[in-house]
User: Fold this.
Amino acid sequence: MNKSVRKAVIAGNWKMNKTPKEAKELLSAAAPLVKDADCEVIACVPFVDLQTAIETTQGTNIKIGAENCHWAESGAFTGEISAVMLKEMGVEYVVLGHSERRQYFGETDETVNKRTKAALASGLKPIVCVGELLWERDCNITEEVIARQIKLDLWDVTEEELKNVIIAYEPVWAIGTGKTATAEQAQEVCAFIRKTLAQLYTPAAAQGVTIQYGGSMNDSNADELLSKEDVDGGLIGGASLVAEKFVAIVKAASK
Ligand code: PGA
Assistant:
């Protein structure tokens, strides 16, 4: 099996951007332009935009994701949102372990793992983010860091559940910096992630997993990044906030 068995997945990660009104405008503009996309198209949006996003994309091929979820089904966790709540609304995906959550909100591999398990149990498809810091790359420990994240974040996730997991490789130094990893660097780490998955599960299971690249992917560099064997799509921040740019990346993935 090779790339031809995996469908490319382009997901926007809006972060803390767009009010519900703006979400409606952006999704209404993008939906008709991606209707013939030959890849999966997802918009991961702030919690308050989810209802509007689901309504606006009804009958289109844009799927909706959240940007985080809690691991408990319900309980005394003021301010949190559970995977069960998201699923009942019609949310299909959830971004977990994003480096901004690791950096600013105390996210650890243990909590990423708990959230991943909860998301899968409730029927959401997690987009699990991993990536090294610049310091870690400079110290030549990128593979150690990535292997550790993959092993811990997916601890106790079964081979059957793995079919619903997307991995996003996002080198932290490339996020929101305009500094994209080269296509070779992206390929190298995405291939390493697949090798790690093959060791943890089976080579066949690893071949089926969609591995995205994320970090300053845009309409000008998407073609080259997506041409690489193990880069199956993108998790797009800044460029997903502008319909034309996001649509251009979806088109690059549809080739
Ligand atoms: P960026 O963000 O495309 O703005 O670098 C990517 C991400 O954080 O998912």
